[in-house]
Amino acid sequence: MERTATGPAAATSPPPAGTPLSDGVAAAPASVLPGLLDGMPRQRGTATPAPLPVEAPPAPFGAWLWRLLPTPAGTPFTFAYAAVLAVTSAVAAVAAPGLMHSLYQDSSTDVAHLVRTPAVVLLASALWIAGGILSPYVAAFLLVLTALERRIGGARAACVFLGGHVLATLATEIPVGLAVLVGHLPTTSLHRLDYGISFGVAASTGALAGLLRPWFRWPLLTLVAALLLSDLTEFADPMTDWGHLIALTLGVASWPLVRRWTRPA
């Protein structure tokens, strides 16, 4: 016998395709109905809830720590510059003292050199680390330049570093030249030995602070400024110490610019 449906189930079965409905419209084929119903809400005024976003798992501590150091792909400017400084520091460690004094003197951004070959000495003076590879500015260079380059890119980080280096150097050496010109300083001040990366590091620190959250920004600036002011009060090298404070101020003044340069995460 052929199976037939009886009872309530038979009353709710859809009519065969092509069967006229009460308003004269033929019923749609059964194969079309599932596709039409898939995109329709199950109840009036409701919709299928969107899937919740899946949060990425936190990076392991080792990966986070690795981001503090320069890498060839992530921070090419800082990595290449650090490699150059490593080479010059190795040379300074093994070369004869007389040779190194001559190299430092030829790279010095004193007034006499700035008058004759300003571009050469402004670049050459940034190839040496005053105090050697164990100077605290080495650690500051690696951490600050790496963080700054990751946020604004290599070319812009180079502009901040070199801009602070150049402007702070000129801001300290030009007054020396004027003081010699009017007789307040001896002519030997025109050959004052001046080289190193500290002005660029100070400017980069000030610029990076503007990209940090306030709870870290202001303690960092307070600590750095206190250390620089402490050096200034010792009066061991006041021109250089003033240059550090000027460079830090230049970095802070660059906040509107570096914030516009910030790359999306």
Features of the shown structure:
265 residues, 13 helices, 61% helix, 0% strand
Q: Can you put this structure into words, describing what you see?
A:
- Helices cover 61% and strands 0% of the residues.
- It contains 13 helices and no strands.
- α9 crosses α10.
- The model is unreliable at 1-12, 21-26 and 30-45 (pLDDT under 50).
Query: How many helices does DSSP assign?
Result: 13
Overall residue-averaged pLDDT value: 84
Structural class: mainly alpha
Helix content: 55-70%
- The total strand number stands at 0
Largest sheet geometry: none
* Cα-to-Cα separation, first versus last residue: 71 Å
Q: Could you state the order of secondary-structure elements as H and E?
A: HHHHHHHHHHHHH
Q: Roughly what fraction of the amino acids lie in strands?
A: under 5%
Tell me the Rg in angstroms.
35 Å
Shape: globular
Low-confidence runs: 1-12, 21-26, 30-45
How is the secondary structure organized here?
Elements: H1 8-12, H2 33-38, H3 61-66, H4 76-94, H5 97-107, H6 111-116, H7 118-124, H8 136-152, H9 154-181, H10 198-209, H11 214-234, H12 238-253, H13 255-261
Give a brief rundown of this model.
This protein has 265 residues and is mainly α. The protein has helices at 8-12, 33-38, 61-66, 76-94, 97-107, 111-116, 118-124, 136-152, 154-181, 198-209, 214-234, 238-253, 255-261.
